[in-house]
Amino acid sequence: MRYTTFGRTGLRVSELVLGAMTFGEQGGVGAPIEECRRICDAYAAAGGNFVDTAINYRGGASEEILGELLAGRRDRFVVATKYTVTRDPADPNGGGNHRKNLRLSLETSLRRLRTDHIDVYWVHIWDRHTPIEETMRALDDAVTAGKVLYVGVSDAPAWMVSRANTLAEWRGWTPFAGLQVPYSLINRDAERELLPMAEAYGLTVTAWSPLGGGVLSGKYNAGQPEDRTRLSRDSINERDLGIARVVHEVASELGVTPAQVALGWTRQRGGVLPIIGARTVDQLLDNLGCTAVTLPPELVVRLETTTGFSLGFPADFIAQTTPWVLGAAAL
């Protein structure tokens, strides 16, 4: 396992992030605590140190299980959790990115995780109703109090993240060091605005659903799986299945698994760390094998061609008009 610094900080994180969304059996198919322990131990044995959860995963069980599993070795891990999603649907202030929910969510997560600080605290989803100034100042106060070390943002538009970090720079607040977005061969939307913005600001990107909800593992091509995920076979279109078939073909040529090819593709984008989630140790070990996979350029082109992805406007328009705009200076 290799390590990289998290954004423009000195915090060192492993190249694969362990997603703890599967920790717990509440609310659907997940992993019981003993299997979670084996998953966590196998990840640590491989050199992994970055674990990602959220206040709402498995109704809070994910944080509670993670807190139990890391007892006695918590300082060896970079623990990340998120807030935004409501703690109580009946409470009008139970969710959102405002200061009140941040404070109460943070205290809840600290208690569940059995720790006095969160290494990386994520804003889970953009809240259109809370001024970004309030959120950034509240996060900075949490950092000043020593309860949070670094902050990041998930599932938000590029313009908002850019504005937030500009405000932080101007006012001396703690800026976002990381960005969390969905990114896979099935969903390349982040390439349009979010990944270029992250590169410009030096943000580390953690990619959720790098297997496209499990589609890129190939299990849906083989028929309806016994362990249903949040995606049903009926909701997966032929484009997705076609991409999965090409991933399987490339995997066969390289002598690796489809999941390793899909994760390898996500990893080859600089500054992007895939979040690997697993319900069994075997799934985890298969995913960890992606670190040994190198995709030749011609296979990368083959994989990307099958997605039919386009950057769209304005990126395509700017590229097309570059010779017209710059003349002899166009490269």
Structure characterization notes:
With 331 residues, the protein is an alpha/beta fold. The chain has a single domain, classed as NADP-dependent oxidoreductase domain (TIM Barrel). 39% of the residues lie in helices and 15% in strands. The chain contains eleven helices and ten strands. The strands form two sheets. An eight-stranded parallel barrel has the order 3-4-5-6-7-8-9-10, surrounded by six helices. The chain has a two-stranded antiparallel sheet with strand order 1-2. Pfam families: Aldo_ket_red. InterPro entries: AKR_Detox_Biosynth, NAD(P)_OxRdtase_dom_sf, NADP_OxRdtase_dom.
The computed structural class is: alpha/beta
DSSP summary, beta strand count: 10
- The CATH architecture: Alpha-Beta Barrel
Proportion of residues in β-strands: 5-15%
The major pleated sheet works out as: 8 strands, parallel, barrel
Spatial order of strands in the largest sheet: 3-4-5-6-7-8-9-10
Helix content: 25-40%
Global geometry: globular
Q: Indicate the low-confidence ranges by residue numbers.
A: 224-231
Q: What multimeric state do the chains show?
A: single chain
CATH topology, what is it called?
Answer: TIM Barrel
Total count of domains: 1
SSE pattern, N- to C-terminal: EEEHEHEHEHEHEHEHHEHHH
Q: State the helix count.
A: 11
Output the radius of gyration.
20 Å
CATH superfamily: NADP-dependent oxidoreductase domain
